Amino acid sequence: MSIRIKLITALTSILVLAFISLSIFNYNVSRQNAREETLNSALPLTRDNIYSEIQAGLMRPLFVSSLMANDTFLKDWASYGEKDVLQIMRYLDEIKNKYGFFSTFYVSALTNDYYYPQGILKTVSKSDSHDVWFYDFIKSGEKYNLIVDTNEAENNSLTIFINHRVVDRDGKLLGVTGVGLNMDNVSNLLKNFSDKYSKTIFLMSTDGTIQAHCQADLVGYTNIKSIAGISGIADNILSADRKEPVTFECKDDGDRIYLTSRYIPEFNWFLIVEQDENGLLKYAKDNFIRTLTIGALATFLVVVLSVLVVNYFQLRLEKQANTDELTGVANRRSFERKVNDAISLHSKNGNIFSLVLLDVDGFKAVNDQCGHIEGDVVLREISNIISSSIRETDFCARWGGDEFIILISGNDEQAFIIAERIRRQVEQIRKCSDKNSEAQDGIVVTVSCGVAQFRTGETLDSLTLRADQAMYKSKDLGKNMIIKS
Questions:
Q1: Whole-structure pTM over 0.85, yes or no?
Q2: Residues 270, 396: Cα–Cα separation, whole Å
Q3: How many CB atoms lie within 10 A of CB 325?
Q4: What single string gives the DSSP state of each residue in 108-159?
Q5: What is the rounded distance in angstroms from the CA atom of residue 406 to the CA atom of residue 378?
Q6: 131, 361, 402, 412: which one is catalytic?
Q7: If you write DSSP's letter for every residue of 25-52 in order, what string do you get?
Q8: How many whole angstroms separate alpha carbon 429 and alpha carbon 382?
Q9: DSSP state for residue 445 in the 8-state scheme
Q10: What are phi and psi of 442, to 5 degrees?
């Protein structure tokens, strides 16, 4: 694995781990903060607000039932033999319409007649299961109570009845009076609370039976001891100190539930406010997902940018390591690798290749008379001529000083032809014509070339040595020529 891949892999791993670790840390902090906020502030505050609203909503009918139980008219009418039924009918109808109650009633302890705005509904009896509430209430000795039952006067609709004992001046029981609240209205009230506060809210009796809930099918039949999650702490809720509100935690299929309870002494019921962690942490989870998404996108962009930057600088470094800075052609190190590869291919496939080594004639004169800057220009011009004269399969490098070396894919004849092409173009170069040089047209630049074809078993050193000897031979014979080894 290359250093570049290792670097990018390490950078990606660090970024991914950093984003994931930070996101998980933030999520856990948000979760803990949400838990503490819920238990210490949100739930208690919601509970107390709802308690106040429910108490205000139910205290009014409780107050009215108390007024009815202490109404002089009702007591006198009952004490004097309940003679005029129309009077009690008008009385109950007036209260029902005035306060907007679902029903109003009076049950006589003397005749057992059940009065309502339309007259006498029935005569209560201990043998009738619908009338058990009446005898239980009288037996309890309570001043008033709340029960949930079907309302025979209103097509057996589920109703919250607020019952109040009626006694004469001597404390003798005359009967039971009260009002009824439509359970649908109470359920809608709790549903509005649940929607408003994003929590589950219900009322239950002291034995754990649900008395009011936004899901009407749970009312009167469901006990919290049978509800998954809450059942595990039901006894703790019911046995808790009723003087102070309490808060609990429980789990339902792995989901954590936060719950607070407050006893309502006027109704002898508990108010329950419940918050599941999934709903509570919805924002935190959404934020967690957003953070991971943004982190993944940022990581991707950083990695892509890093790859581009690393590739860019690696290419620059490779170019600097393998390219001659002045002329732009390959340097000696790069050329040596190229020739060694060619030698390996020759040993496997018998591929023929040759070298052309050329040296600039009169280069010292250019430097002395025109300056080194002009000498650099000459080297660049020659490198351009070589690059434009060789094929894609050939390879040129600056061998050192004013020497260039070319790897030719082919025999020495092909190498000679390419070298001749280069020689002819180079001898067209003229320099320093304005420097009062001895030559009227300036200094003529030429090259001397040596060509050597690779021989089986040769090394790079022996091959270049033969090309070098051929090149010096061309100089000895008058320069600006090509000699094959």
A1: no
A2: 94
A3: 9
A4: ETTT-EEEETTEEEEE--TT-GGGHHHHHHHHHT-SEEEEEEEEGGGTTEEE
A5: 18
A6: 402
A7: HHHHHHHHHHHHHIIIIIHHHHHHHHHH
A8: 9
A9: P
A10: 100, 180
Residue pLDDT, tens place only, 257-310? 888 888 888 778 888 888 877 766 666 667 767 777 877 787 778 777 877 777
Task: Work out the average pLDDT over 253-257.
Answer: 77
The torsion angles phi and psi of 101, rounded to 5 degrees, stand at: -80, 160
- Amino acid identity, position 23: S
Nearest to 211 by CA among 165, 149, 266: 149
| pLDDT score of 75 | 93
Buried b (16+ CB within 10 A) or exposed e, 245-279: bbbbebeeeeebbbbbbbbbeebebbbbbbbbbee
The alpha carbon torsion through 376, 381, 386, 389 (nearest 10 deg) reads: 180
b/e string for 121-150 if b means 16 or more Cβ within 10 A?
Answer: bbebeeeeeebebbeebbeeeeebbbbbbe
The length of the chain, given as a count of residues:
485
The CA-atom distances, in angstroms, between 336 and each of 166, 366, 406, 452, 454 are: 118, 29, 11, 16, 14
CB 114 within 8 A of CB 123: yes
d(C-alpha 99, C-alpha 122), whole Å: 24
- 402 catalytic? Reply is yes
pLDDT of residue 437 exceeding 60: no
pLDDT tens digits, 7-48: 777 777 887 787 777 777 776 766 666 666 666 777 788 888
User: Containing H/E element for 334?
Assistant: helix 332-349
Predicted confidence (pLDDT) at residue 231 exceeds the cutoff of 60: yes
Strand, helix or coil at 218? Answer: helix
Q: What are phi and psi of 170, to 5 degrees?
A: -95, 5
* Closest listed residue to residue 107, CA positions, set 183, 182, 173: 173
Show the CA angle centred on residue 343, arms to residues 340 and 344, nearest 5°.
90
**Which residue is it, tokens 């009260």?**
178
CA distance 485 to 468: 9
Residue type for position 185: N
CA gap 350, 355 in Å, rounded? 16
List the structure tokens of 450. Answer: 């040596």
Locate 402 and state its tokens.
């004013």
CA torsion 320-326-329-335 (nearest 10°) is -70
Q: Which tokens belong to 358?
A: 């050329």
